[in-house]
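USER: Study each token:
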Amino acid sequence: MDSNDKKAFLGFQQGELNAVLMYKKFAKITKNEKYRAAYLEAAKDEGRHAAIVSKYTGETLQPKALQANVLGVLYRILPKKLVHLGVSKGEYFGGDGYRPYVGDKYPEFEGMMNDEYKHGEIFKNI
């Protein structure tokens, strides 16, 4: 893996870990059971993605709580439709980030990309 790919993969790994915290924070805050289930499912997928990417980076990263805490505050005060639209856009962005790496060299990335797009659709539509 060249240095540009490693830098990208570390960014993917960090983003996945941060997303786990964000979704868990949302699940803890919400009183809507449908939302809670969607957040916990997405958190599980994002954790799996982080573990896969870490196999390639060889690094152990920690999630950044500041982002999850800020988003938790926004989650409490903004309309959920707006929050979900922002989350959806972030998921599509993540899927697009994996796209150049889909192929034989990184076989798991296609499934991860598809998960990101699936999350984007889920949060756009709830």
